Amino acid sequence: MGPVTPAPRGRAAHGSALPVFSDSGFTLIEVLVVLIVLALAAGVAVVAYDGDERGIATREAQRFAGALEYAAARAQLRAETLGGSAEGGSWRFWRRTATGDAWLPVTDDDVLASRRLPPTHSIAPLLYAGQPLPANAVVPLRPSGRNEPMSFSVSATQTQILLAADPLNRVSISLIEAPAAR
User: What is the pLDDT along the chain (182 residues), one digit of tens a residue?
Assistant: First the structure.
């Protein structure tokens, strides 16, 4: 046997051709994998962006309804008078002072924190004890748990959602479609 020499570049020891790899460029498989990953990411982004006004209005109405029910339960539990207000594009919860002469914003509870709606949506109080309410009214939630019936409206361009609370602090949500624009 002779001296051992390395096989020539591009050829195996048995004489078959080896593929020659270049360090520049991408293979077709690599490009396809990147395109698939980008398509999946774009799909997730489209699903995550919800431009459906009715869906947004429904979620905001559900969020406010839950906050109203929670505030009524908290008022009973802590024996304090709380109140809710809604005007334009936001809502807020209030606590009555011990002397009963003023309302202070609730700042110690994330559920009752002030909330701003998306720009195309609005919320307004409608009725309290059967009487119309002005836009800036604070609707009281008593410590006794026996509250007057109340209603609010969440609106978008083509959608209006009615929230109605009964004396036992249960809030129902009803979708009212606005007529289509002509």
Answer: 566 666 555 555 555 666 666 667 888 898 889 999 999 988 887 766 656 788 888 999 999 999 999 999 999 999 999 999 998 899 999 999 989 889 999 999 999 999 999 988 999 999 999 999 988 899 999 999 889 999 999 998 888 999 999 998 899 999 886 545 54
- At residue 82, the 3 state secondary structure works out as strand
Give Cβ neighbours of residue 169 (< 8 Å, ≥ 6 apart): 68, 69, 72, 73, 141, 145, 147
Print the domain residue range for 151. 53-177
- Please give the Cα distance from 27 to 137 (Å, whole number): 66
The CATH number covering residue 90 comes to 3.55.40.10
Output the pTM of the full model: 0.69
Is 27 within a domain?
Answer: no
136 class by beta-carbon count within 10 Å (0-12 exposed, 13-18 middle, 19+ buried) = exposed
Q: Would 65 be classed as within a structural domain? A: yes
